[in-house]
Amino acid sequence: MSAIDLVKQRVRDVPDFPKPGIMFKDITPVLADPSAFNICLDLMAERYDTSSFDAIVGIESRGFIFGAALASRMRKAFVPARKPGKLPAATHRVEYALEYGKDAIEIHRDALKKGERVLIVDDLLATGGTAAATIELVKKVGGEVIGAAFVIELTFLPGRERLKPVDAFALIQY
Ligand code: AMP
Q: Whose CA is closest to 162, among 79, 96, 118?
């Protein structure tokens, strides 16, 4: 079995969560398997090994798990992009539409220095609304987005198109 097939095997489909008609891709079994989790981090680290960047912005909440682990491994800063009302200091906020509902995302105004280069990380790219809002947030704080990395991409949705010209990288596509 290839490394990526092992990860794929660990992604659990949960139908009708959190709403009827949504097939939720549950990555908790990936996290519970050290081999699968490390394969994800190995492949992401390999993809950005020769890229020059300063920080990883992880999207709440599953983007924190992969993003923080990758930041630690790659010796980059980790910056959380959070749901409204969670960050304690002054924030910027961007609102966006989800595959299921509406939301907003915030970042600390002083999270990045002007011109810092950023990789965005989340578990899954669906419509791209969350990641697109996060790209906007990074720009608001003066950062430059060099790419967006995901464990899973739902290719029947136009997420990748929506992030352009930012390049999207995904380990697994459905
Ligand atoms: P989107 O903004 O539509 O690209 O949605 C991406 C965000 O919603 C990510 O943070 C995902 O964790 C979550 N998400 C959306 N659709 C799914 C799905 N089918 N399974 C698991 N998570 C999802």
A: 96
Closest atom of ligand 1 to 99 CA is 3
Ligand 1 atom with minimal separation from the 132 CA = 2
Annotated catalytic residue within 10, 62, 82, 160 = 62
Digit-by-digit pLDDT tens for the chain (174 residues) are 899 999 999 999 999 999 899 999 999 999 999 999 999 999 999 999 999 999 999 999 999 999 999 999 999 999 999 999 999 999 999 999 875 678 999 999 999 999 999 999 999 999 999 999 999 999 999 999 999 999 999 999 999 999 999 999 999 999
* 12 in active site: no
Look up residue 47 and give its two tokens: 């993809």
Three-class DSSP category at 79: strand
pTM: 0.97
- Binding-site residues, ligand 1, Cβ < 6 A: 22-25, 59, 62, 98-99, 122-131, 159
For 53-96, the DSSP string reads -SEEEEETTHHHHHHHHHHHHHT-EEEEEB-TT---S-EEEEEE
Q: Which fold has domain 51-173?
A: Rossmann fold (3.40.50)
